[in-house]
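To close the chapter, one final illustration. This time we ask the reader to focus less on the individual chains and more on the assembly as a whole: which components sit near each other, and how the overall shape emerges from the parts.
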Amino acid sequence: MKFQAFGLNERLLANIEAMGFRKPTDIQYKAMRPILGGDDVLAIAQTGTGKTAAFAIPAIENLMRSQRRLHYSGVRCIVMEPTHELAQQSGAVLEKLVVNSGLNVLAIYGGVDQAPQIEKLQKGVDILVATPGRMFDLSSQGYLDVSLCEILILDEADHMLDLGFIDDIRQLVKRLPKHRQTLFFSATINEKIKKLAYSVVNKPVNIRISPKDMVSRNVTHCVLMVKMDEKRFYLERIAKEHPEDRIIVFVRTRVRAERVCQAMKRVDVRAVSMHGDLGQKERNTALDQFRNNEVQILVATDITARGIDIPSVPFVVNYDVPDIPENYVHRVGRTGRGMDKGNALTLCAPEEKETLKEVEEFIGGPIARMVMDAVEREATLDFSAANKQDDWQSLIFEEEARRAKEKIKNKKK
Ligand code: ADP
Ligand code: MG
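The assembled structure is written out below.
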């Protein structure tokens, strides 16, 4: 089946082709007709399966078909995203898809000056991509007119509904026209959140792709049992044995992100950290450095676990077992995107065994264990120790050289 089969506008088809999409992915294929038909949709599909385009393409088509005049300061479609980075990323995908369509896209998120965002909002926006914080902020200041909004989309829907914004979302929904479309997209969902989603819409069409195996089939994932304070040696070895490959490393806290990053730098592995303590500019710089291959490792907390789409990242390392079980699915989903294959390794210390059990319960089965014998373990520790020895030896040499020079000087005197 090709995109042409859905009767999409020629200009939209040209944009899809320009993005290099030859045929729809499963979720794009399954979501297209219900969304084009105006249904509310709750779609669950694994990480990296093209959910952004799965809601964006039919939403754009519907907006082009409806030809409702742009209302002063009005917004016709809202896409909600949990983080700044995801608002930017989805905004960029939407921008590519609306070329020559007559529609415009605006991404708004916190951490940047709101004045230019307000100015653009007041001119009218067809598709607004927003983080909830900034959006409800601008809304409460009266800058957001949603009275003609035709489509509301919640990406990473379970997280969006769980962020404590449900009351704001209900308020928002009340102000939207009765005849509107609501779309939920995510890789994970639980019963509680599903009920919340249903409370906002009328009888949504349920679409689920491979619900049993939450981890994308493109990802090979396993666990290695290691001691907490030996984890860095394993990471160092993976990085150095695959010098051409980029790695996303997930840690539990911001402090640990900094520490792991420093530990890698000390052994000459290029690394950068990304977490919530950093300003927006630093976060963008970190992501750019990683995207542009200036660093091999991105050490991140769970704020980066969801949605971020960086092609060609062959490894994800869970340096810490995730506290929130569903984050396991999102973390390992940063590899194996689109048509790529990926590997995910979880380093589990004895004190994390219980947390790992919760993860395995959540994903519905045990994760394969990587077997590491004593020889391999020694080899890994030696692998790193060798570096330290080199450093140590070079210091000794320097000291010897200094003394030798001193001797010569003294003799001359
Ligand atoms: P998800 O939201 O499901 O995790 P994304 O929407 O971020 O996934 O897409 C993952 C990757 O797949 C992106 O790099 C995107 O460009 C690519 N992709 C999406 N749809 C297609 C398609 N039809 N053909 C080829 N690649 C696609
Ligand atoms: Mg996504």
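The chain has a mean pLDDT of 90. Residues 21, 24-25, 28, 47-53, 309, 311, 337-338 surround adenosine-5'-diphosphate (ligand 1) (CB under 6 Å). With these observations in hand, you are ready for the problems at the end of the chapter.
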